[in-house]
Amino acid sequence: MKPQLVLIAGPYRGGTDGDPARIMENLHRLELAALAVYERGHMPMVGEWVALPLARAAGSERIGDDISERFLYPSARRLIQQCDAVLRIPGESKGADGDVELAHKLGLPVYYGLDDLPEVTIRASVAG
User: Is residue 111 part of a domain?
Assistant: First the structure.
């Protein structure tokens, strides 16, 4: 099996009541899952890694403002179309549930635990 590009789907704002510290805790959980996916030989992707810089560049001043809303869910939907699989981590999240629904429609595998994600042995790359 070749390495897959795996979208990590889970809570970002969900369950935080807009508390910035709790939002950052959720992002940290997404990133810990991304690290675990990487260590299994795949390339992880977290939608907020794309959405947040785009929203800032477009003038967003805070999470949840009108500008950020133009990017958070839509960028994840575009990103899923480039991915090979989705890893759904635990926690309430309408956005992550939408990611899973889209992945199913696209015929992508959805993993609900790291043990379900196959490990890949990475071969040494050719020096260039």
Answer: yes
pLDDT (tens digit, 9 = 90+) per residue, 85-123?
A: 999 999 999 999 999 999 999 999 999 999 999 999 876
Q: What does the alpha-carbon distance between residue 100 and residue 16 come to, in Å, rounded to a whole number?
A: 21
Q: Which residues contact 55 (CB under 8 A, 6 or more apart)?
A: 67, 68, 70, 71, 72
- Amino acid found at 68: S
- Residue 94 maps to a domain: yes
For residue 87, the domain's CATH number is 3.40.50.10400
Taking the alpha carbons of 111, 115, 118, 121 in that order, is the dihedral positive or negative? Answer: positive
Please tell me the distance from the alpha carbon of residue 102 to that of residue 86, in angstroms, as a whole number: 10
